[in-house]
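Hypothesis: this fold can be encoded by more than one sequence.
Test: take the structure tokens below, design a sequence, compare later.
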């Protein structure tokens, strides 16, 4: 497909021709195989707490959703889940929770990360242990640094939208876009492999907005992308908003493919939301260039309390693994599967590798 111009991107996003979509996916798949290969890496996802101090208009975990029963896993429970993932060959996990203003939560997480790192290193011939991604929202620079020092080396902080008017339409005024961008830059500065992403198909989101989001990803030089379709949750203000919307599923596939073509060496997730919105979501997400899948390891009895959106679908890890292989991709087990973009562009990579020696 060569270099894609802004006009091409706009035309593709505006098109409802399935032939255009098919050609786009083919080009993205080719580009992915040439640049990051055919491996799909697994990140065991542990949603360790659903407490949240924020009030994003779209999210079922928002503080003002008083219908939701809150939970927080104990340290030993989290460590056990992580080690189980490790022994099953997933050499990376992602620890995720709502955002909190409580510094005790960060102290707790630092301990969790350190313990997982120590235990998994002891159990690992190469002594690298588990690769740990965090996704716990906006924190202070020093807090990010402490988590990095404890052994986490990737961080996912979705911007949700980098377009100021759209960001404002889905967040209360106390949550600021500039603050979130500062956090992304802090993470990069510390040395994390940094990931972001948006929601696709939001009420009022236009093709022009999406074009700007793609520019934002490139400008911020991110290493990882995690994004998915907007799926409403009934206990949120945004679910009541009626406005024009792009097709969340097809537009997500197009955005994934366009990201792969314009940022060929990043790691990109085929999200659970994408898998939830359509039975073919995983397969199509991989075809569109995604090379990361995050099986949910959160214990079954509490999974329902971690609904950012509704109708979330759970597939067993084995089912996911089978589906990945049946689509013609190789499971990247027993390795971290770090972002190639990061390896190529970041001096800190060496430092992070030294940490593991
Ligand atoms: S998106 Fe994150 S920060 Fe916002 S309400 Fe949900 S869990 Fe909290």
């Amino acid at each position: 497909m060569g270099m894609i111009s802004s006009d091409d991107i706009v035309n593709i996003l505006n098109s409802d021709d399935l032939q255009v979509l098919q050609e786009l996916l083919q080009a993205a798949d080719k580009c992915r195989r040439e640049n990051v290969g055919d491996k799909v890496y697994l990140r065991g996802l542990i949603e360790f707490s659903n407490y949240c101090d924020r009030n994003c208009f779209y999210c079922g975990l928002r503080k003002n959703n008083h219908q939701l029963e809150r939970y927080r896993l104990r340290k030993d429970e989290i460590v056990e889940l992580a080690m189980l993932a490790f022994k099953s060959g997933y050499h990376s996990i992602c620890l995720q929770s709502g955002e909190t203003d409580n510094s005790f939560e960060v102290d707790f997480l630092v301990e969790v990360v350190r313990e997982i790192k120590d235990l998994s290193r002891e159990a690992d011939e190469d002594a690298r242990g588990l690769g740990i991604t965090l996704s716990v929202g906006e924190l202070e620079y020093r807090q990010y640094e402490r988590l990095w020092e404890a052994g986490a080396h990737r961080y996912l902080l979705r911007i949700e939208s980098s377009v100021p008017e759209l960001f404002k339409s889905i967040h209360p005024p106390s949550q600021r876009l500039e603050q979130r961008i500062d956090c992304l830059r802090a993470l990069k500065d510390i040395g994390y492999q940094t990931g972001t992403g948006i929601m696709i198909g939001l009420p009022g989101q236009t093709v022009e907005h999406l074009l700007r989001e793609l520019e934002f990803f490139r400008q911020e030089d991110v290493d990882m992308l995690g994004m998915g379709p907007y799926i409403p949750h009934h206990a949120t203000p945004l679910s009541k908003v009626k406005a024009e919307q792009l097709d969340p599923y097809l537009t997500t596939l197009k955005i994934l493919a366009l990201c792969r073509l314009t940022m060929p060496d990043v790691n990109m997730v085929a999200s659970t939301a994408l898998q939830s919105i359509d039975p073919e979501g995983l397969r199509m997400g991989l075809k569109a260039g995604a090379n990361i899948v995050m099986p949910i390891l959160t214990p079954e009895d509490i999974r329902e309390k971690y609904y950012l959106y509704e109708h979330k679908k759970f597939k067993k890890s084995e089912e996911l693994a089978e589906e990945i292989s049946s689509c013609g991709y190789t499971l990247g087990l027993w390795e971290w599967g770090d972002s190639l973009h990061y390896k190529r562009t970041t001096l800190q990579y060496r430092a992070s590798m030294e940490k593991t020696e």
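The domain at 6-355 is CATH 3.20.20.70 (TIM Barrel). The chain has a mean pLDDT of 93.
Hypothesis status: open.
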